[in-house]
Amino acid sequence: MNVTMFIPCFIDLLYPQVGISMVRILERLGHKVDCPELACCGQPAFNTGYWHESREVAGRVIEQLHDAEVVVIASGSCGAMIKVFYPELFAGTKHERMAQELAPKCYEFSQFLVDKLGVTDLGVSFPHTVTYHDGCHSLREMHIQEAPRQLMAKVRGLQLIEMSQTVCCGFGGTFSAKFPAISTAMGDVKCSLAEETHADYIVSSDSSCLMHLQGLIDKQGRSLKTIHLAEILAPS
Predict the structure, then answer these.
(1) Which residue of 52, 69, 144, 187 lies most exposed, with the fewest beta carbons within 10 A?
(2) pLDDT tens digit sequence for 15-35
(3) Does the domain made of 129-233 have the CATH classification 3.40.50?
């Protein structure tokens, strides 16, 4: 099928290897991939209460995506914004119908592979012990929990050890800017839970969470590393 990728701004600017990995995986599976040049999905302004400003940004996104056959989003956070919150954001506006029609065509990457394509085994290996971080938007808004674990279960040499608790990493986008002390404390808890597993890597489908955690890990001199799920699944 024709797959339109939505690459979040922070992945485009800071973690392009994540987007490249996703494109390589989808093309290897035989799909045609289009990556339109899009800006932010509008979530920071939306979360902060500036809905008018958010619509100005998100309106350009929705106009470019609404004709897509399927939209695969490289982040559960941005995925939730487009799939779950766009219909709310654009209710009563000229983009209301577009938002409602776009929502069912949107998938987070791991969700698309498992639930839409029925793919779990990509024939790759990653001989490391990992623990998985469920991003809050992925888990609570997109209801994604099993898909990334089904994909990791088929990776040769990968051993998944779950953390004892499922908690927020503390990033929350603008939350970390407004409440840095609370954000850091939450991140410390998350890093400690991950460290208790003795894993080599924290894996997630959300680069924004991993950015926050890797910053804390580096500052505190912990031995953990972070990696996006797509980087593990991409063909070598």
Answers:
(1) 52
(2) 999 999 999 999 999 999 999
(3) yes
